[in-house]
Specification:
409 residues; alpha/beta; Dna Ligase, domain 1; D-amino Acid Aminotransferase, Chain A, domain 1; 13 helices; 16 strands; 33% helix
Amino acid sequence: MALADQDFIPVVLGTGLNAYGIARALHEEFGVRTLALGRFPLGETAHSTIIEVRTNPNLDDEHIVSALDAVAQEFHGKKLLLLPTIEAYTNAVVRHRAALDGQFIIPLVSAEISERLVNKAEFYETCAQLNVDHPRSVIINEPQAADARLGEDLPFSYPVILKPSDTELYPGLKFAGQKKIYLLSDAAQIRDTAKLIYAGGYSGDLIVQEYLAGDETVMRVANTYSDHTGRTKYISIAQIVLGEHNPKLVGNMNAVVTIDEPELAATLTRLLDSLNYTGAANFDIMFDKKTGTNKLLELNVRQGAASYYATATGSNLPAQYVRDLIYGEELPYTVTTNSVLWRNAPLAVVKRYVPAPLRSLVTQGRRARVAHTLWYKKDLSLKRVVSNLKHELRTGRNVVANEKFRINK
């Protein structure tokens, strides 16, 4: 089916795994094809019959409005659902929303609420105000990094985590010793690392945070959707069973198993509804073994890269956006409870490297269903099969190569 002949057209910003997951979910539910715009072609969306990929190396914040204006003119009169898949595109859409709202249907939160949540320091302050569990933290700015006593009187013990608060500025920097997060054992390391980061061009706040000990056994993820009236309507929670151990990619995941966590779902609902949140959200969560509580680490104002796991439970996440914003349907409150193993790495690698305490959970998920975002039976040309096999080989090698960086072996 040609894009112009569809009832609505999904317009995805990005050409990676998340883009394919969204396109697949919407094709499964509504039979529609997706238009994907990105700076470069990527293997995850290559040779697909359900996605039309268009690339433009200048698709940055300065040019994104004009690029989307051209799409709106091309498909004038059609309902266009705009779905950014990575942080840079999401922030750009939120910033330029006033210029885009008349042409696109955008399932994202307002700029005001986004600013309050995307910056980690403000997110933790918001959690504190709403009595939502989060790691204890101390905020550092650039002048404080020169303090010779920095790190000497923290309200929690070492080791600690240090990470940048501004997750838009920091990933765009390149400097020796750069990591997504740093695990530090004393005050001298805090001072040295803070100086390193600021010398590398970073200018935002840094967060020094209590270290919640544990490997994948304490790591969880959640994807949610809140309707246009600000009511939470969809929650899917998963246990990370194989994380990403490359220091520059910590926080990504190679395999998860969906779980039923009613108390955590209730907490996320209370947080989002208190903010009158609208649109998709993706949470990083850690379980604190000392207190027996789930603590929120981060909120992204879009669905996560691994979020096809939610659709694999049998309850389609992107379909929520369509039913709410395009068809005007009243959505039921849905919390997914089916057990599914979602993987991005080869199954043999997942089984080999998953921590021992999680193996029974992985077995449970495998018996119910094993899902991989890219292996869609309705989109498997020979070229696509070859592309997917290359992806499997690459992710498998990455897991093995970065096993040496695992903090808790």
